[in-house]
Structures
1.
Amino acid sequence: MTKKALCIMSGGMDSTLVAYIMRSRGYEIIALHFNYGQRTVSKELEAYRTVCTDLGVSEKYEIDLDFFKTIGASALTDHSIAVPTTGIEEGTPVTYVPFRNGIFLSIATAIAEKEGCSSIAIGVVEEDSSGYPDCRDAFIQSFRHTANLGTKETTSITIEMPLVHLQKSQIVQEALKLGAPLHLTWSCYQSEDKACGVCDSCRLRLRGFELAGENDPIPYV
């Protein structure tokens, strides 16, 4: 019987690598993407679809979550809050979307149960991330316990987070080893044409490539 993994995929570098890792472990990949009113929603969706084609995914979900714009409180979903471009912030940055991964994982659990997936895979990174509380190992482990309490007795889901303790340079190296198509991915928080190079996400990505001794294949301003 084929084992299935539901991969939460943003179209970014981290979640793309996770999907390729899960495929290398013998899983059939079911892909899940969220449009939640983020500034680069169109570019991320395009990247997600292109990566899914490269990965050979036959079953994919695209979920719209417009309520994130109503909640606001994040520079990614509220255009009245500027995306920081002066360097990576200390503490929890204004690009944090309140409890985003908790909501994503709740929906993912429902789909995984429906599809008979034994695993949900997510590209959270704790040590070298932007300081988001919902990217922490402890949070994901706690959510896994809750998800299994709230589903059928016959449902048993693990939550895989193979990158959680890696640094960005290690993620670049692992992606190159597995042949993950980093040229198809998108990380910029604020631009859909050429990456800005100065938002937190761009800075982390560029630093990862630099430390790995590689050139980032996507276009920058």
2.
Amino acid sequence: MSKRGQAIKYLLCDFFAAMLVWVLFFSYRKIYIEQEWQWYQHLFLNKKFYIGSVFIPVCWVVVYYLQGAYHEPYRRSRLNEFIQTLYTALIGVLILFFVLLLDDTIQSYKNYYKSFAVLFSLQFVLTEIPRFLLSSSTNHKIQKRKLGFKTLIIGSNENAWNIYNEVQNLKDGNGNLFSGFIHIDERNGFSDKLIEKVPHLGELTDLVAVIKQHRIEEIIIALESTEHNYIQQILNDTIDLDVRIKLIPGVYDILAGSVKFTSVIQAPLIELNREIAPRWQINAKRIFDVSFSVFVLVTFSWLFIILAIIVKLTSKGNVFFSQERLGLHGKPFKIFKYRSMYIDAEKHGPALSSENDPRITPFGLFLRKTRLDEFPQFINVLFGQMSIVGPRPERKFFADKIIEKAPHYKHLHRVRPGITSWGQVKFGYAENVDEMIQRLKYDLLYAENMSLLVDVKIIIYTILIVFQGRGK
């Protein structure tokens, strides 16, 4: 089963557990607290029953989503999951108690304690049991090596050989299923032994191609001390790839505290934390993006139609313009815009727009000044290809030119591209590669300081630009 399918299992279990909790708790309240023995006769006339049966399970699922409970469903620690479920149930039930239950009429304040204890117990137990069963089933498959993550060893000397042997000799599998190894340089002292166990997939220069071709999910950097100068190159080459990176720690790495440990017997590996923000913040941003996009598309649907009609009437060609851009992890996608140029505007090859660009239609100039040409990209946001706020996505043609002069541009691929950005607000449209590089520093600052508060500020500035027609 795919990761998405496994995540859906967890989500459905959480939803129906929360629904069952409310039904059981509602029954308990009516029978033992309010002592309405015939409560079922008017059950479906009770407003709180409906609120609890539908709205509350949705709220629980949203909370779990924000925590990252459905992220990487095959990499769950049962102990961490137990603790997370415990404190989430405690905090969530406290909120529910004060919002929905504290104003109930009761005979004794002790009933509040009983209600809280019952609701908390039900929520924790009925949520934890299916989670524990799902996680145990997954862990059993991993231990039996029926399930795992395609792993690539970088290195072919003593460290690589030792890591391979120690992982393979574990009584229970740890999830690493070795797809092969690649060389670093001509010093390949243990490659003859390794190649008898796993395929040799190429050299360091082939790293990106090997990861994509073999769908590698994890990399273990097993270099000798004389090869450590290659680590930065490996990190740069994989910056826009969705792979986990582990390496053998040195004393400095441990003291730096910038990595989290995983356990491998006799050879502890450390996993580089390459997340740009906490998981809850990334998920909260996604919820905000979807909610805001739905609001805009519904509220301004009339404007969407009017702009489409005007584009069609003022120049020949399609209403919408689509073009391939690079998105999250450098994956290409089709971006949508209102057409603001005449047809065949790039018949002589890719080119950036400039001031007084003859390729832009009169109405297209208005669309660009007000940024309304970007309106259809809210559809890209709903598809998960873009965010409301994020670095502007570029075509591969121009991205390659930027990387030639500024290799750190690749760091932007860790962030989902946006309709508007800090660079766009501060700098506007770039007319050449040098201006793109000047704008780059603002987008890098955003990537390192990403938050919902920053997003709201950028959205406000963008709205001002729309109304003032100051788009460049």
3.
Amino acid sequence: MKNTVLASWAAFSISILAAADVALADDRFILATGRRDPRIYAIDFRAALKRHNNNTPNAIVSRSKVHPDRLDGVPVGDPANIVLSEDRRTAYVINHHGPVNNAEFLQHGGRGSVSVMNVRQMLDPASDNTDRAVERNYDSGYFGAVGLLVLPELLLVSHSENWLTEDGSNRISLIDRNTGGRRGQIEMALGHPGHACPSFPVPFVSPTPPPVVPFEAPDPQFGCWPNPEFLALGRGSDGKTYLFSGNAGTNDVSVMDLHQALAGVPVVEVAPRIPVQTGPFGIKASPSGKFIAVTARESGQVDFEGNTISIIDVDRARAGAPGAEAARVRVGTDDPNGQTRPFTVAWTPDGRQIIVANFRANNVSIVDLGLALAHDPRAEVARIAVVRPPEPDGSVLPGRPKGTAVTSDGRYAVVSGGPRLDPSAPPSGTVWVIDLHARAVVATVTGVGNDPYGLTILEDGPD
């Protein structure tokens, strides 16, 4: 079975390069996570671009529950991330705290879950506000699930929290796509802050007491645990694929040998971690796999939000060479001390530009890779405000952008956002469509979840 997983991965890594050249058909949908609203929103892309649908929820075709309702009828789940299968028939959804009622679970460290969902059902208006699209629900393998990569036979799921606490994870789970069983788990080294860390062996040896301390950021005791957030796959010039994680707890990026992980080795970090401005969250590989873009979202130790993205050179990173952080670019503000809280990133298909959602600044940046690598201060080539339509009382809530994606023709970026409101409030989130040629918002879809996070773009429909 081990050899089968490695062989499947080798074939898959070639096929994803070929898929980048597939031409677009007319069918496009946005699949956006509702987050505190435990549904996935299917949005008709063409309908969203129609002028009469702007600033309305009219382009939403269906909303699919991510878990069956609780026995008392309460919807459960908190979808934070979504990734499509290779054939686009299946959507894998990460529920950060699993099947919870967001009005009741008011802390961190819930046991994550994976919802396996039928894409055709998600697009069917007859499935609206039902769980018909849910085929299976898996345990994610640990707590505070967030990052997700889809491999031929496995799901890689990162865990940014421990049991009932925001701090304390060093785990990335390998989940069998067919059965939902945990086939393995990567264990990451602890950090080296200026204070004592718990005595916790890596790899884990039983019996060892659980190192659960109820920290909630910011707290000066952060820094022992990496707390990996989103994940990305980089390609080295040596022909190997490397797994990168943005570590919110230790303010750095890890480089891991994916092939060793697929062979069942638990400790696979291959080089020193790469420090970034502050705790990263979103991380994404360039189309070539040679560079990794990562956001500096916020510190776990002190009350500080970042204002940069880092661009990691994969070859330098895997070798532990100087200059692995090839560039650091300020985004969302001209003030060096401004805190913009960059959330996630997406690359244009040609690999020349990076789209950044700046949560605190309520804008979206476009960063030019060439200028960034040349350390040109003009590397942020555009900054686009994302604005919500007025509320019924005339007030305008902040945009708070989070999720990002780019169409395969490079024409549009799609961004999700909206402030977190009371879970009992009506759907309050927003999705903006940005024309990257005009560098302007050309469509706004309202009523998309509550505090929406990740999203993806479905093109050509399920095979």
